[in-house]
Amino acid sequence: MSTRLKLYYLLWKIWIELAFTLSKRFGSQQAFRLFTTPVRKDAWTKPEEFQSAETINLFVSNKKLVGYVWNRQAQHKILILHGFESRAYKFHMYIAPLLEKGYGIVAMDAAAHGDSQGTTILIYEYAKMIEELEQRFGVFYGCIAHSFAGIALCWHREQHVHPENKIVLIAPGTETSTAIDLFCSRLGLGEIEKKALIKYIEQRGGHSIEYYSITRIVRKISNKIFWIHDEDDKITPLADALPIISSPPNNVEMLITKGLGHNKIYRDKHTVGAVISFLDR
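Above: the chain's sequence. Below: its structure in token form.
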């Protein structure tokens, strides 16, 4: 973590702790605001693969979202969904192989990411974006989702049942409770603050924190799922996936890698090949 980023989190920690001294709810609101704010935004030059894309705009929650489309007329279309603090450009390595197979492709910058508007992103907003895309393009033949996009996609599939849609989960954000643990640890927030934040999220969303769980959802949906996870992932640890690994549902196929962590895994050429192979069966 850079010195600038450490200072940023330190200032937020001071502010959140001050907010908690005023009231638990106010402190929780401020913590939730940072929890849903993508902080790291790398400057990216448009990759060569994106030069040929059709640029589209989508309006979700009064935010203009930017997306990219290839081969719009294809019968089978693939939706690419990036993770937290990422963007569509980072998945350029999937474009050529998918086009070679004749697929249409849609890749979006989610709210507060890439060239899209906004400062925060919620699971519900991400899911709403997918819904809006399906209204425009129809139900996708397949969806590739990394990290945070994984829980948003699975939650959307639970609400909008389309068993014909193939799902690829790469290092998915399996348990929201783990994301909260990591967030509180990064800021040095204590158990009292963490419990208050969880309570705020539960009250806001109307569900317990366990509800926002891919392990819960994949046992309720019948979509064919290809789940790829790395043993050395520090952001979405493989341990969260153990209930699925130990007793996988019939619709879930697992691929466990080693040494790729949370971000190298989706860029790895073997991962790309495995994903294309799964979609092409």
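Residues 1-35+180-206 form one domain.
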